[in-house]
Design a protein that fits this description.
Strand content: under 5%
Shape: globular
Radius of gyration: 18 Å
Strand order of the largest sheet: 1-2
Distance between the termini: 11 Å
């Protein structure tokens, strides 16, 4: 199964393929055997984290690390019509704000929730409770935006005027949030976020999203 961070870029590539016929090659990296810590990978991303994007149309090939930077790179160089971005600078700013919000305030908390709740050898109640509460707090921020609590107008997507438009802001957020059950949250935990749950279903129904999170990207056996 591919990771939420990997799925961000996979979804974007699949969306670009549907719109423009974009083509790419995929190199599988087995993080369970620490392939991402080997020298060949560190030359591309010194941080040793997946995914990494390599633009082989450049000479020498140009490597991009960090998922939000990768989404923005693809937006700039592969989405000429701004289908997944915005031409209006203020709407573009909204997309950047929500993309960076999740990158900096959402994924780190939910990632630590996963670690302490599912993978840590020693269960530390304080750590589990802290990262559970912080992740739910961040879900609440997304709920405020989608519900239109302070604007009076609910939104279907995180960024854009009116009901918003599907964009890199959604692509960069969805793979983590849709995994709320995997992280250990109950349906009761999620009850305060009805607009967020509808947003998860809305994004997840897109064919390219299904492909980007699908078996195509599972590690070959």
């Amino acid at each position: 199964m591919s990771t939420p961070n990997g799925q961000k870029v996979q979804i974007m590539l699949e969306e670009l393929a549907e719109k423009y016929g974009t083509e790419w090659d995929t190199t599988f990296v087995n993080i369970m055997t620490n392939d991402q810590k080997k020298e060949w990978f560190l030359r591309l991303n010194p941080n040793g984290r997946i995914p990494v994007l390599v633009d082989n149309t450049q000479s020498p090939p140009f490597a991009v690390m960090e998922t939000s930077a990768e989404l923005l790179y693809l937006l700039k160089f592969a989405d000429k019509d701004d289908v997944f971005g915005f031409k209006d600078e203020y709407e573009r700013s909204q997309a950047l704000q929500w993309l960076f919000f999740w990158h900096g305030s959402g994924a780190p908390y939910q990632g630590q929730m996963n670690h302490f709740n599912k993978f840590a050898k020693d269960k530390i109640p304080y750590a589990i409770e802290r990262f559970k509460n912080e992740t739910l707090r961040v879900y609440g921020v997304l709920e405020i935006q989608l519900s239109g609590k302070f604007t009076g107008e609910p939104k279907e997507y995180l960024a854009g005027n009116g009901k918003g438009k599907y964009s890199v802001a959604d692509i960069g957020t969805y793979p983590w949030v849709k995994a709320w059950e995997f992280s250990g949250f109950s349906k009761e935990d999620m009850q305060p976020f009805p607009h967020l749950l509808k947003w998860i279903d809305r994004i997840g129904a897109r064919p390219a999203v299904k492909k980007g999170c699908g078996e195509k990207y599972n590690m070959p056996k």
